[in-house]
Amino acid sequence: MKSSLYPLQFEPILKERIWGGEKLKTILNKSITSKITGESWELSTVEGDVSIVSNGELKGKTLMELIVETPNELLGTKVHERFGKQFPLLFKYLDAREDLSIQVHPNDKLAKERHNSFGKTEMWYVMQADADSRIIVGFKENSSKEEYLKHLKDNTLVSILDNVKAKAGDVFFLETGTVHAIGAGLVVAEIQQTSDITYRLYDFDRVDAQGNKRELHVDLALDAINYNKVNTQKEYDSKTNTSNVVVDCPYFTTNFIPLESNTEISKSSETFTVYMCIDGSFEIEYDGFKHTYIKGDTVLIPAAIRSFVLNGKASILEIYIS
What we know:
Blueprint: E1 13-21, H1 23-26, E2 37-43, E3 45-46, E4 49-50, H2 63-69, H3 71-75, H4 77-83, E5 89-96, E6 102-104, H5 108-115, E7 122-129, E8 134-139, H6 145-153, E9 161-165, E10 171-174, E11 180-182, E12 186-193, E13 199-202, H7 218-221, E14 233-234, E15 244-248, E16 253-259, E17 263-266, E18 273-286, E19 289-294, E20 298-301, E21 307-320
Antiparallel strand pairs: 1-2, 2-5, 3-4, 5-12, 6-13, 7-10, 7-12, 8-9, 8-11, 10-14, 15-16, 16-21, 17-21, 18-19, 18-20, 18-21
């Protein structure tokens, strides 16, 4: 089995959302049929949404099956030791035709106690932004539970939250507890802990096709929120054919690679690596394997693959566990 591992792609898991649109098709080449597709889950082991291999001799296998069969070879020795036979990250592309709800995610401790889940530290890479698009991240100034509840009751919560204009190439890193919302007109790549736990605070009084408002989680969120002002935007270098560090946190490391020509990659067997193609196209060459990836593609490099070549002209996110 070990020798049969190769760069793996998976069937996108497409999600309709009240705020979704059609850009996952027009910009990222996803085969959507709905006009309100908000998310493409690229790599997932969330219960009920486990990714299925779409290429090569392992086509049809689930990501969980591969982890169970070859945990060290797929996850890496260090990742396997730390997380067991769990895939610790979730990878997505999102299309926000409208504002997402204002929400917050619990930390590991709360998520474990309440939901037997990981917390949800995450980052966003902005792939496309309409004019005047913005992101809501944290409070404008240090706040408090009392001030937050007052503004929530008065329907003025947005007035005390920080709005940041967003453009293509911007990166936002959100630690657990950060109140946030992706704004209308944005397409983002999202990297996060494996968790689907979201506490929704405010949804702009929207209703679905049946006239129903979505559930809010005001009480659950109270102890999850960081009421202090936070700095979420990340600056990073863009040296060509190099892994430029964007985010380095306990849960994942994300690098930005502006690929211009053949680049040899060597890595340890301690962790898997994931590449998300955010612009252009590139090839991976490995031991007779050769495949081209285009904008919107995501590929998992098993930990057992320690050297390969990237070739092409592309902007790539490189993600692994440090």
